[in-house]
Write a structure and sequence with these properties.
CATH superfamily: 2,3-Dihydroxybiphenyl 1,2-Dioxygenase, domain 1
CATH class: Alpha Beta
Oligomer: single chain
Shape: globular
Helix content: 10-25%
Strand content: 25-35%
Distance between the termini: 29 Å
Radius of gyration: 14 Å
Strand order of the largest sheet: 1-4-3-2
Structural class: alpha/beta
Length: 131
């Protein structure tokens, strides 16, 4: 269904430093990083799409976060949700909801919410039952 997801950022180096450890913790591989453009994209190893991309807006205007917009990243385990949330806060993100069960979505939904340094809202979640 998705080809790629592009998140606009205002300070590419800051954004790359924020997203690189998160993508690594989620098992994503850096496909490209072009600082002169500036943009970078990650992918699941061995899978061409979808790509997760961060970069400056193509029109040259400042990146702005949208109210009601959120990107949800799939984590392989609940421990990965905890780790990614902690990484986000360590690398300049802000908390929007600590890791935990959200049974209003479904009984096994375990998620955490945060914003990147540009204000983009993200979620990291695992849909599997506890081991």
């Amino acid at each position: 269904m998705l080809s790629h997801l592009y998140i606009g950022v205002n300070d590419f180096d800051r954004a790359f430093d924020f997203y690189a450890p998160i993508m690594q913790a989620l098992g994503q591989t850096l496909k490209f990083c072009e600082r002169e453009h500036p943009w970078a994209g990650w992918m699941t190893p061995g899978v061409a799409r979808p790509l997760f991309i961060v970069g400056a807006p193509f029109d040259g205007a400042p990146a702005e976060s949208g109210n009601g917009q959120m990107v949800a990243l799939l984590a392989p385990t609940r421990a990965a949700v905890d780790a990614v949330h902690a990484l986000a806060l360590t690398h300049g993100g802000s908390d929007e909801g600590a890791p935990g069960l959200r049974p209003r979505y479904h009984p096994n939904y375990y998620g955490a919410y945060f914003r990147d340094p540009d204000g983009n809202k993200l979620c990291v979640c695992c849909h599997d039952p506890a081991p």
